Hints:
GO terms for molecular function: alcohol-forming long-chain fatty acyl-CoA reductase activity; alcohol-forming very long-chain fatty acyl-CoA reductase activity. About 50% of the residues lie in helices and about 15% in strands.
Amino acid sequence: MIGEMDVDSVVEYFRGKSILIAGSTVFLAKVLVEKILRVQPDVKKLFLLIRASDVESAKLRIQNEVIGREIFQVLKEEHGVGFHNFVEEKICPLVGDITHEDFGLDTAKLREVSKDIDIIVNVAATTKFSERYDVAFDVNVLGVKHVCAFAKKCIKLKMLLHV
């Protein structure tokens, strides 16, 4: 059993950290995003890697598929009218795809983001047994390869967690 001291040190560890989450629209990632924002509001940034055509589409997906979900109700009540400002300050949509090298980010964005990230959490995967082989391979194999290659470019990286 994890003691209270251990939990406190984990919560404290996230203070001031920038975290990249790949697969942020899957259930486990939503739980992680909500938990981090609730227990450590002093996290610096949560970069959510989102497949979208542009930043506005990515923001819409985050609104509809992540923060718009019932799991965020406690945070909404806690922050009241300041909820959207809090979320906008903490969550940074990153338009990209793990099936592409460097997530398909342009050089300037890659350079900017790779300087800031302390932690990468990869929960992106396809778990459908009936998935086409090429799709499953791209996400579950090449995606992991791309996450690892991206991690090597993150100069402040302290942790890579692959689920």
